[in-house]
Amino acid sequence: METVTLTPTKTPELMFEGYSITPDAFAGKTAAEIAELPGHEGKIVMKLGDFFTVSGNGGATAADTNIHIAGDCTRVKYIGARMTAGSVTVDGNADMYVGGWMKGGKVLVKGNVDSFCGIQMEGGEIEVLGSAQNHVGCAYRGDWRGMKGGLIRIHGKAGNDIGTFMLGGTIIIEGDVFIHVSTHAEGGTIIVKGDVEGRVGGQMVKGEIYVLGKIMYMMPGFKKVDRVEKEVDGVKAVFDHYIGDLGERHPKSKGKEVYANLYVKAQ
Amino acid sequence: MSGGEIIIKGGFVIDPTQKIDGDVKDIAIKDGKIVEKVGSSAKVIDAKGKVVMAGGVDIHSHVAGPKVNAGRLLRPEDKLRSGTLRSSKAQKNGYRMESGFSIPSVFKTGYDYARMGYAFVMEAAMPPLMAPHVHEEIHDTPIIDEAALPVFGNNWFIMEYLKNHEVENTAAYIAWLLKVSKGYGVKIVNPGGTAAWSWGLNCLKLDDQVPFFDITPQEILTGLMEANEYLGLPHSIHVHQNNLGNPGNYPVTIDSLKLAEGVKARNKFGREQVMHSTHLQFHSYGGEGWGTFCSKAKEVMDYVNKQKNITIDLGCVTLDETTTMTADGPFEHHLHALNHLKWTNVDVELETAAGIVPYIYSKDVLPNAVQWATGLELALFAKDMNRTFITTDHPNAGPFTRYPRVIKWLMNKKSREAVLATMKNMDKVIDATNIHTIDRELNLYEIAQMTRSGPAKALGLAHIYGGLAPGLDANVSIFDLNYKDMPKDPEKIEAAFQRAAYFLKSGEIVVKDGEVLTHGHKKTIWVNPKMKEIPQVTRDVSEAFRKGTYTVGISNYPVREYLAPHPMVIDVDVEA
Q: Structurally, how many domains does chain A consist of?
């Protein structure tokens, strides 16, 4: 197991597209070779070495490569995007698309992330100690194939459009969420430990949502069916169980229609 | 660019227009044209061990206009598959960012065609009302020369004239519309069917009645064919037939083709056909439903082979995730009901409509696999490759950037079998098609006929494109293929056609080693039929605008000069 340390030396004038900052790209390369890897700043092709000092060599494979960014990446996009194994740790904040399309490995951001964190993710794990902006684990704009697998855990709060078109995997937001949770989802699980303003599960076909706080405005397409006790991410509680979205088509299994389930902690 | 002298030395030249098949020859270029010889100071391009062909000619592709743009808006996710967005080389040469896969940006469209060595592309469906937009996009597409076919098959004026079989009036209307829209010829999409779609109906057979207009698809087709020959246009009618994409549609296809029997081509451009039947793959199916869906490519081609006054293009399914878009509005709604993906529809006043739906052609879905085989079979059953052209009906059956892959499949049985072997329903595909039993492998000469000499002749453009004879435009593509020692690995054929070693457009080197070097000097071609005015038609058109049947006034309808700033106008003297 090798660790490559990137230390930020300069704040990019425009956002820097750090699509090369993945264990897959670093594997098998020396520190000097890693510093030569490309990234765009606007329309200009720059090098990682223009913004970071690099120390340590990559491991033989992505799985043997850890990346440690010892500083802030508020203006660096695509950290860990499309990675398949290994790990990336960012000591500060990160910009958009952290762990987007990732298939495996782990990304840890100790600060906040911007939008599109874990977009269309297929596997692996993303942990954010701070908060996230919008579109956590959602589908790319226009696409109808969202997050398929893996785990995203945001310790702080998140904005809107969480898990849009989700098909699988788990998203846990420990703080509050604004609006649009699991819109169009056909699978997967979202756990919100704080409150949600509204629009939870709109046009949702299948999948699970747990809200441990309050939903200020419920969607009219959800119907309360019973009250159940469940343990969710280490918290045991009694939930009001809703099914929906009743306005949407639903698949049948063994002659019965399958609905999405929304569990809201009983007050 | 003009002036510079260039000589392409020592390549294996393939030019069906001069019956040259792999002879080692030099090609001389001066002032943007091919010439007999040049001076000793000419720039030398070494083509030794490489294949030299004319620039490619694409007879049918949806690359510009409101329909394509609606597709771009509907599918932002298509940009995820753009490939190389911004190479450092591109940046150095100062050219524009590329985006999109099945509906590429105008810049990517021009660059990708140029990288494949294509010189001319026909935009296959221009709604006349939207012609200004089509021309703006054409103008913004670098390098390649383009023209656009306005759609006539569901036009209210045309249907009014043809229900009384007024061919001369129809011709006068066509002549007017080609002029004001800067169009090239007569496109017909689902004749009568798209008009019927305004009533929620369709025309699936030749004798179905179009609601309100009291006319049939057959009358529209024969009437427009007569009007086209009356005018003597460079291209024939260009037909997307009725009942596209449905099981068991091949008898309608053959019946439509039969309408050309006995009709003679009348033009001064060397065109011999009176009907071009486009994306024939979508029209060559048997079976009573999707369960019994099968290829009828052999039956259709048996007819095409003996009927000399028709030409076809393939519309090959390339097994990609793509975006379907056509003026066949009812078909797109039908497709949306089949695949449940997002759908949009556009209605163009008195003229036409369009629908758009994303589509994923999967080798493991039986009907898609049969479609894949059907497209290739059409070419493999064809006897006259000069009447059979390679297309993917871009982007409907696949993006145009897959032409090299289609060429590979046509040239190499092993590569076809390799695809077949990975199909989930291989045995069922073999039962429903002929592809497994066909051993034919096309050669480079036949590929040059299908992509160069053939389409240029069918478009009436053989005096500019499609060959390497002196006097033609100096559009020359050089591919890294050894004619005498063709690669055993079929992937190398695809790679060679994907990125030309060189492409010269109008005598200027625009691509080298598959990289675009310059934006070139593109032209927009349109046809100007000089027909005497018929007062009734002039009155009908101005009355329609005056009464407000259109949302624009007649003075805002034509395409202004500035929208097509590099025109090449083909004048047609109409002898009544």
A: 1
